[in-house]
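User: Hello! I'm new to structural biology and keep hearing that structure can be predicted from sequence alone. Could you demonstrate with WAT1-related protein? Please show me the input and the output so I can see what each looks like.

Assistant: Of course. The first part below is the input, the amino acid sequence of WAT1-related protein. The second part is the output, the predicted structure written as tokens.
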Amino acid sequence: MVQGAAVALVMEHDFKAWAIGFDSRLLAPVYSGIVGSAMAYYLQGVVMKEKGPIFVTAFNPLCMIVVAALGSLILAEQLHLGSVIGSIVIILGLYSVIWGKSQDRTGSPTLTKEKGSSLELPIVANDTMDHKNTHSDGAINSETPTPIYTDVPKNINLCHV
């Protein structure tokens, strides 16, 4: 950034070009930045809620492919062999993440997340009725109550969660 500013100062001697007015030269980039960022964050939030954070991070490199494709179509930029090979590698990586995620969901039937439900840990309830935790006058002892685990399936392996 500092290097770019130095080169720009050397190349542009007219200081009037550096003046930012309150017109379309300022409004257009600010508006597109705010609206574009808002749409991107909203879509990322929706995808994260529906599919999880893996898909949001996996699809981020796809933006480079979209920019390269739109640049060649709209701006008539030349695509180089390295860009095409990089795009293929990114798409193969994205496919492998999606394939691995689908295998992960089908491999463990007890931990799958169905549509409309959420994957939750077992519920821990405090045993406040235990005679060790209450005195005869009804006051609660300062000891930590012993937790009781409920709703734990017998065939679940918690080490692979």
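User: So the tokens describe the shape?

Assistant: Right, they're a compact way of writing down the 3D structure. Reading them back into a model, for example: Residues 24-51 form the longest helix (28 residues).
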